[in-house]
Amino acid sequence: TMVALLIAGCSAALAVGYIAKYGNAHAGWIPVCRYMESFCNIGVISIVFSFGAFLVFYLLAAITMKSPRQIPVASC
To answer: What is the mean pLDDT of the chain?
Structure first.
């Protein structure tokens, strides 16, 4: 479930970034990247790092699932 939440957040950020770059004529939203270029550059960098974090988290989860650790039972 953590992987699903992480990719959902990344996808939502990507959707907002897409609207900021290209706008939405149907809704009347203009592209803002023409006016605030530094905002869009920082947004692109953060989205790239978010997807990188998703890939690292996914690989760690896959490695953990492949070789689970067994906890030894202590004898009394």
So the answer is: 87
